[in-house]
Fold each of these.
Amino acid sequence: MEIVPPLRWTPVGAQCVGLRDRIVDEITRRIPDCVLNGHPSERLPNNLNISFAGVDGESILLGLDLQGIAASSGSACSSGSLEPSHVLLALGQTADVARGSLRITLG
């Protein structure tokens, strides 16, 4: 049986962490009232979930799709649902913030 190291310990994982962190830095610089969902560093190296209060996640997705960027709204367990993510609500986000969430997976 081969033991596979976690993605974050691989060169690809390190590259994903760098890119993910640059994306978060740029978004939070341009939109200071956005909310990073989950722990800032203890997360998958290729994943981020960020929310924008007062903005519908589906509207954000449409704009990103027009730019050729694929993303999802909500958490992975509620992708495609119009209801706010129960995961984000359990993390303490308001329904308004949870509805404006965007999930990006790099790879």
Amino acid sequence: MNLPSMTSASTDAPAMHLLTGARGSLSPRIRLSSGALSLSALGNLRSAVLDGTKEVRGAMLSSVLTTCAVFIPLIFLSGIAGAMFYDQAMSVTIVLLTSYIVTILVIPVYYYWWFKGSDGFRPSPLLEKINFDEPIRRWDDRLMEWFFRHRPIAWGLLAVSVIGLVFCFIEMPKTRLPEMTQTDAIMKIDWNEHISVERNTERIRELEEKLAGSVEQMTALVGSQQFILSHSGDQGISEAYVYVNCKDQRTLKMVQDELRGVMENEYPDAVYSFEASGNIFDMVFTQNEASLTARLRPVRTGEVEVGPLRNMLAEIRDVLPGVTVANPPVKTDALFVADPDLLALYDISYSELVSILRNSLNENRLFNIVHGTSTVPVVTGSNAAGLSEILQGTFIEKKSPEGETVRIPVSDLMRQTFVEDLKTLVAGSEDNYYPLDLDLSSKNVKPVMAAVSEAVREDGGFEVGYSGSFFSNSKMIDEMIIIMLVAIILLYLILASQFESLVQPLIILSEIVVDVFVALLVLWIFGVSINLMSMIGLIVITGIVINDSILKIDTINQMRKAGESLERAVIDASSLRVKAIIMTSLTTILAVCPFLSRGSMGADLQYPMSLVIIAGMLVGTLVSLFVVPALYYSIYNGRKKK
């Protein structure tokens, strides 16, 4: 079996975050250079460099701190999230802090040194011909005027985003990790019948014939295996371990559907399951749990009996018509029951019969060989015999009333029957139970739990408890939400101290609601679940999308302090910063675009995060340019009228 390489996953994750950190390090330099260029066009280069640095250093510090405030809480994540992103969070934080120092102390010196011998900044003649500055400003002015006339739309967009955000979190599927591109899989089969290895092999060959032309490779481990280091588990004679490899993921799903149909139609008693072929990442991080496991515990006895359990599963199957409820894997044992009437007739005690049987069955036995669910005794001697022959050849000698010795065959004193029992016993803190694994989407788990609990309550013979990946995934999502809330609180405190206002941070943070809603909507449209990687992406964009709004609000405040009117300050700040905002957003979007590919393990892991960051940055740029200024004007214009 070909196992995917772990290299792409281990290198792509740091690369993604270092690119995000690179965006954070480029953004201050773009803003500083843009400010210096604007001021240098007015005259003295030295004054332009100093004034440009002073003008943006406060906003840049807030941007760096807000981004760090998002990444630092990631350090305290537990489990897989903390293991995957500790180094990345540390590296991005160090890069951003270092970048701020370099931007304030080094870049202005380089700029001054480069242009000090010239009269002023002169754009490249070639690049000047393809300059989009005027068209961008023209469109910015038009859209700003439109949002000024329709300010309720900005508030309406915010309200819709709040409702949509809650709706998406409730309705979207939730998983632990993104769906990986799989072209191969392993099918575990327990025929749940007493069949020989030869018959087991015949059935596997029949499956292979049905799949001819659809699979590129099919390998099976049939019956008990004798590997020194077993990788197929404790496999019995009536079990098989089948590996299928297809040319693409679509073909693999078709093959799995065909196998399900064959098993349900031709072998309804069989128990089967599909799982990934396995790789290093799965071995380290993936938990092989069903979405929901119903733990059925008998009420009256401590033993899980096959008959009542089958009845219980049949009732559950009736209330869950669209869900596969597998039959319990059972084994059939031969049971010999002593006939008390015959024992009394021949004056044979029960202990005497047991003693004779123990001596006969254990005669010349050296040891037992355990093969899966069967035990093979190893005995010495040349006359091999089966159980029936041993019982028929074993006698109990008794004296008749006439004094003659009578030999009574042991087989005549017992009757043979067969009993079914579960192949495996599972126990926990709640005593013995039967684990019923149900493969469900996250949104169907709670209705299924309610239906199963109602069926168990009506039966009265069992109690039920629940476990599964749904609960661990929900715990992980809750932990990520808490991290996001902590990050937002840190952002608010940093912004409040920077702007010396309690309202302006709320205006800036309102952008997060719109951005997160649109990002979740894009994930839903592209069929991606809410998972660890997409949640990390959401946390990341909460820190980086507001940097543009910070720059815009800071510029508006400076213009208002310089004496400009509220409306003029909002419009001029938008016109002045539109180019820097677009440039900083494009640096992130273009840097993340290469991670939109899929097909390898590393690419599959990064895809949800890339999708979230690109969607969040696109809508975040528009919100920073038009919605945030409209909200700012609406709030402060209302205060002015009062």
Amino acid sequence: MITPKNPSIPIPDSRFPIPNSQFPIPDSQFPIPNSRFPVTFFNQSYVYISTKNSIL
């Protein structure tokens, strides 16, 4: 479809939107802990992203 050089860039781009859509879900699941420990939740988000990227 597109030149082989382009796909290599869109691929990582498409990976981020996926985890992004998953963050709103856990955010709504833990609204209380988010307000109590925003730092902890923030750290978990980073770990989640790192884990996702490692798996992919």
